[in-house]
């Protein structure tokens, strides 16, 4: 990683200094400081019985300017770990390794490397007071002791100032129900296993029973001629995008009224695409997916528009000449994975358009249970805010190995939220991170690849972008791959390494991107 040039830190709205008012707990002989990250703000929506996440820090002091070591040290419980230093502008090209003790078995792991692929966003968020340099976080499971060694072994002549170990306990939360964007069976265990959704029938655009002549059927009424027999549609996929509803007149009887009468006039579920409030609805979306020009200056994205339309439904009636639009893929909401919203102090920033999606991996381990995915994401949120000093979690979406999609950064899954995931290209893109390590032998599951294809096709489709096209974007910073101002021609679904000098998203996931693009292109959510 090359150091960023020096810059002046500027505070954001309501800086997070009040977080540190939480009680510090010193562990005997370790110097570990534990900080509860749930700020205790009034009105925080917490579920009774939930245990808040905590961040523990441990200073890595020493006299050797090029090396820091920590002997085996008992700590408070943690499940995710990384190292950080005082100033993000001070890049670090050294080596950091840790090993941890499993809290259940008491066994110590082998030494594991920490990656240094993370960069603060090239926006005011990255220049805010309190932003720290940091490694990528590493998920290690529930642990109660740690050993560490950090060496400046590259071009660096010394380890960074105020070097410390950051350990995150993700806490516990309870599911809140009714927090998903659309009903669809959700995978909760190993890949391939799903659980039925009790609410699946409530927003299904197709009927789930054979049509009848019941005069009390939902409006608008069927034409006076009785409907002809039609096949059982109970097995029709709920997100099928084509054809009129089967409850209409027979094919030989041309309807005298609007051909879309029937269930397709019902309001779509709340996860349906919503026009970007910064764009005139009459123009939405007209840009071709291969439009080589970025949608706006990278530093100028609308933040709060008082005239913005609500995000819980479309702003205009559907075109009766078009088939019903598919619903969005199911996305587990921040409420359902237990995001601590008291951490997020500043409102989201929005782009005019999402021109591309960058695919990432979280590194760490592939041995996690899918039931642990919410805890992993809670820990990453805490790390990105408490360690990196960002306003919110960096990625816009997460996907686990069971194919579950999770909402990332707040602001609306159907809106172009500015994230912190791909240095130099955040201002044009959305970021999807797959839980797991796909550089050191891990292979993405079929479920994960399918989920990445669907969420990228849907996200790009909201902005009229073809997931199999290319786009030319102007690099907003020196990334190790591109110089600031370069015209970078990229796939609309690219890997992190295409924009920034990193191994992310790992060799096996990166090699799967052509397959993912093809699947996204044939998805019901794709725009061609």
Automatic annotation (TrEMBL):
Gene3D superfamilies per the UniProt record, alphabetical: Peptidoglycan recognition protein-like (3.40.80.10)
GO molecular function: N-acetylmuramoyl-L-alanine amidase activity
Family: Belongs to the N-acetylmuramoyl-L-alanine amidase 2 family.
SUPFAM superfamilies noted in UniProt: N-acetylmuramoyl-L-alanine amidase-like (SSF55846)
Name the record gives this protein: N-acetylmuramoyl-L-alanine amidase
Region annotation (Disordered) ranges: 157-330
Keyword field: Hydrolase, Signal
Protein source organism: Streptomyces maoxianensis
EC id: 3.5.1.28
Lineage, opening ranks: Bacteria, Bacillati, Actinomycetota, Actinomycetes, Kitasatosporales
Polar residues compositional bias, start-end: 179-191, 296-306
Signal peptide: 1-36
Composition bias, Pro residues: 216-230, 265-278
Low complexity compositional bias, start-end: 194-215, 231-242, 248-264, 310-319
Domain Peptidoglycan recognition protein family positions: 329-478
Composition bias type Basic and acidic residues, residue spans: 163-175
Stretches assigned to the N-acetylmuramoyl-L-alanine amidase domain: 342-485
EC top class named in words: hydrolase
């Amino acid at each position: 990683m090359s150091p960023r040039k020096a810059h002046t830190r500027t505070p954001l709205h309501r800086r997070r200094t009040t977080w540190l008012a939480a009680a510090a707990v010193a562990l005997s002989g370790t110097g570990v400081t534990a900080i509860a990250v749930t700020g205790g703000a009034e009105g925080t929506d917490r579920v009774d019985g939930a245990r808040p996440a905590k961040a523990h820090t441990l200073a890595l002091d020493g006299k050797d300017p090029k090396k820091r070591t920590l002997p085996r040290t008992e700590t408070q419980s943690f499940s995710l770990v990384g190292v950080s230093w005082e100033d993000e502008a001070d890049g670090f090209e050294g080596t950091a390794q840790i090993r941890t003790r499993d809290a259940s078995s008491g066994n110590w792991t082998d030494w594991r490397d920490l990656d240094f692929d993370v960069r603060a966003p090239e926006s005011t968020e990255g220049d805010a007071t309190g932003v720290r340099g940091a490694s990528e976080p590493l998920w290690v499971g529930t642990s109660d002791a740690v050993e560490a060694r950090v060496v400046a072994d590259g071009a660096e002549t010394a380890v960074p100032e105020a070097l410390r170990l950051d350990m995150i306990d993700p806490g516990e939360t309870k599911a809140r129900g009714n927090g998903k964007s659309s009903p669809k069976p959700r995978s909760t265990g190993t890949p391939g296993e799903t659980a039925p959704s009790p609410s699946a029938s409530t927003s299904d655009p197709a009927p789930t029973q054979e049509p009848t002549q019941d005069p009390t059927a939902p409006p608008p009424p069927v034409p006076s001629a009785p409907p002809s027999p039609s096949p059982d549609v109970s097995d029709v996929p709920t997100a099928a995008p084509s054809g009129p509803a089967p409850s209409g007149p027979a094919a030989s009887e041309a309807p005298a009224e609007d051909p879309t009468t029937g269930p397709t006039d019902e309001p779509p579920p709340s996860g349906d695409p919503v026009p970007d409030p910064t764009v005139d609805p009459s123009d939405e979306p007209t840009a071709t997916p291969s439009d080589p020009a970025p949608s706006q200056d990278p530093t100028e994205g609308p933040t709060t528009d008082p005239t913005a339309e609500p995000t819980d439904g479309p702003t205009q009636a559907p075109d009766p000449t078009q088939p019903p639009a598919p619903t969005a893929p199911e996305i587990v909401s921040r409420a359902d994975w237990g995001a601590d919203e008291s951490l997020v102090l500043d409102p989201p920033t929005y782009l005019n358009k999402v021109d591309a999606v960058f695919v990432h991996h979280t590194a760490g381990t592939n041995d996690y249970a899918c039931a642990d995915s919410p805890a992993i994401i809670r820990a990453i949120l805490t790390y990105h805010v408490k360690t990196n000093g960002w306003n919110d979690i960096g990625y816009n979406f997460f996907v686990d190995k069971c194919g579950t999609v999770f909402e990332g950064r707040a602001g609306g899954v159907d809106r172009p939220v500015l994230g912190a995931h791909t240095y130099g290209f955040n201002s044009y893109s959305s970021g999807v991170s797959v839980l797991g390590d796909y550089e050191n032998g891990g292979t993405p599951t079929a479920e994960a690849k399918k989920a990445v294809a669907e969420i990228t096709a849907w996200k790009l489709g909201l902005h009229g972008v073809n997931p199999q096209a290319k786009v030319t974007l102007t690099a907003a910073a020196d990334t190790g791959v591109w110089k600031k101002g370069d015209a970078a021609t990229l796939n609309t679904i690219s890997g992190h390494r295409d924009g920034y000098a990193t191994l992310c998203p790992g060799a096996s996931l990166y090699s799967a991107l052509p397959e993912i693009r093809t699947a996204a292109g044939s998805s019901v959510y794709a725009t061609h």
